[in-house]
Amino acid sequence: MSAAAGSESEGKRDGEKPPDRMTIGELARRTGMTVRNIRAHQTRGLLPPPEVQGRTGYYNEDHVARIELTREMQAEGLNLEAIRRVLDHTGSSQEIVDFARAIRAPFEDETPEIFDAAELAATWKIEKVDPKLQHRAEKLGILRELPDGKIEAISPRLQRAGTAMVELGVSPEAGLALAQKLHEHAEGVALAYVDLFTKEIWEPFDRAGRPEEDWPKVREALERLRPLASDALLAMFQLTMSEATEKAAERTLQREAEPEPPRRKRSKSRRSGARAASSRRRKS
After folding, report:
1. What's the pLDDT tens digit per position in 83-102?
2. Is the pTM of this model over 0.85?
3. Cβ atoms < 10 Å from Cβ of 83
């Protein structure tokens, strides 16, 4: 091949866009950002530089993931400098995005149900929902008042359980007091699992320098821990509930089996005195 032909071939290769690569204009259209903002992100260190081929810079899916993650972190309230520090100490953008989404994923995928005030009062078998009672439920995260005045039940399953308890004769006040106790205990369990994940999985990963190849393992551990936590909590609750009901039944049966204390007999002198007093009252 002649030098001219080789040079022409090399020039064609330089002009060809690599597969799975985007120009800055294509990245802007793909992400909905302006070219100016993309360059501003690069200047702030939020976006790695493009791969330069010839005189053209090309971007890839990693750049798309970084932009998506930056948006999600901004939505969580982080400023751009805080986001830059996070990105500086983590692995690939896609792994970061996947891990961040795994953290923010809802523990249980329930679709909230919406009631108007009268409907909610009917489920609680009361004429009108007490505003103080509703406020307590909102503080627990059970209910949420919407701008139009309707009420959103965050967990329909919990709402159905509360309705069933009311049907058994439990007052809404007592049911909410029970929910408060359950919330306190559940918060303790949740913190125990978070502490477990932090100490046993995240901290060793962090001490190792957060190797990029281990990000999928950490994310998988987080995702698997969710159903494991639910299963373990339910199993432990069933055990403790069985023990508690058995002990309560034993105490009740023991009280029923205990003989009643004998009645004290009145003495003969007291009975004679009572009769005499009665006779005097009749004569008078």
Report:
1. 887 777 665 556 666 776 67
2. no
3. 22
